[in-house]
């Protein structure tokens, strides 16, 4: 009997050595926070981006309460968004992450969490930005 190889070595690597685990201050105006949950399993992922004035993501961190595939997916996601423009990272598909990690089909929703978290983080940043420019305008 050969056991199915459920996890690609990249998953194991990102699982054993997750990149960019951590938190930024969510009240920092340069930070966007994406907090998403997977209804199927109840796992939760928080992904945060730090954005420069030019709209470029300079840094990213995550905290994931979830399975190994979700942790690995968030780890990959933080690696992929760093150094990219916000519009650019909105095109990152969970299927690309899943492919990169060779996730089995039953683990696709775990990578979905990462795609959702990226989108939510960008949205949060843009909402904060819009509020600060429309709202109380400080004299400049
Ligand atoms: Fe880490 Fe590709 S193996 S992002
Ligand atoms: Fe739920 Fe992986 S089993 S995120």
UniProtKB/TrEMBL annotation:
Top-level taxonomic group: Eukaryota
Protein name in the entry: Iron-sulfur cluster assembly protein
Main subcellular localisation: mitochondrion
UniProt entry tagged with the keyword Transit peptide: yes
Location within or outside the cell: Mitochondrion matrix
Residue intervals of the NIF system FeS cluster assembly NifU N-terminal domain: 7-129
Secretion signal, residue range per the UniProt entry: none
Cofactor(s) essential for the protein: [2Fe-2S] cluster
UniProt keyword annotations, A-Z: 2Fe-2S, Iron, Iron-sulfur, Metal-binding, Mitochondrion, Transit peptide
Pathway annotation: Cofactor biosynthesis; iron-sulfur cluster biosynthesis
Family, per entry: Belongs to the NifU family.
Gene Ontology BP annotations: iron-sulfur cluster assembly
Key word Kinase present: no
Function field: Scaffold protein for the de novo synthesis of iron-sulfur (Fe-S) clusters within mitochondria, which is required for maturation of both mitochondrial and cytoplasmic [2Fe-2S] and [4Fe-4S] proteins. First, a [2Fe-2S] cluster is transiently assembled on the scaffold protein ISCU (ISU1, ISU2 or ISU3). In a second step, the cluster is released from ISCU, transferred to a glutaredoxin, followed by the formation of mitochondrial [2Fe-2S] proteins, the synthesis of [4Fe-4S] clusters and their target-specific insertion into the recipient apoproteins.
